[in-house]
Amino acid sequence: MAFETPGALDPCPCGRGVAFGACCDPLHRGEPAPTAERLMRSRYAAFVVGDAPYLLRSWDPATRPATMELDPTLTWKRLIVERAVAGGPFDERGEVTFTAVARSAEGRLEQRERSRFARSAGSWVYVDGDPL
Predict the structure, then answer these.
(1) Residues 97, 71 contacting (CB under 8 angstroms)
(2) Could you list the mean pLDDT of each consecutive 10-residue stretch along the chain, which spans 132 residues?
(3) How crowded is the C-beta side of 121, counted as CA atoms within 13 Å?
(4) Which residues cross the membrane (predicted)?
């Protein structure tokens, strides 16, 4: 199985109900996310399309791994944002609790996490997260 990038007019995999070309694709190309939730959604979309460089760029340098390999056998199916705390346009920190649903050769997989985000040089970055 390989990663597939949606077309600009296709629905964005992040689930906001907006076309990929107007939603997460501009963030993947360097536009800053306006909120922590939007960054989290764009990171989920990066897992869907296999954009490891974006995941590393949007990760706080203090907690970012040196490299990252994505598993092409996972097919990410759905993102459920459960709660966002702070992380707005005028905040410096935020948290987003979510469940990401995937399919693997073994069956359904769910990743539930409370992620922490912070502003770094004016842009939101992923700091770390706690599995739930």
Answers:
(1) no
(2) 88 97 98 97 98 98 97 96 97 98 96 97 96 97
(3) 6
(4) none
Q: Which two tokens stand for residue 69?
A: 């390999």
* The pTM of the whole model exceeds 0.90: yes
> CA 99, CA 92: separation in Å to the nearest integer?
24
User: Strand, coil or helix: what is 121?
Assistant: coil
Amino acid identity at 103: R
Please give the tally of structural domains in the chain.
1
**Segments forming the whole domain that contains residue 103:** 20-131
Alpha-carbon 54 to chain mean position = 9
Return phi, psi of residue 125, to 5°.
-135, 150
- By three-state DSSP, how is residue 58 classified? coil
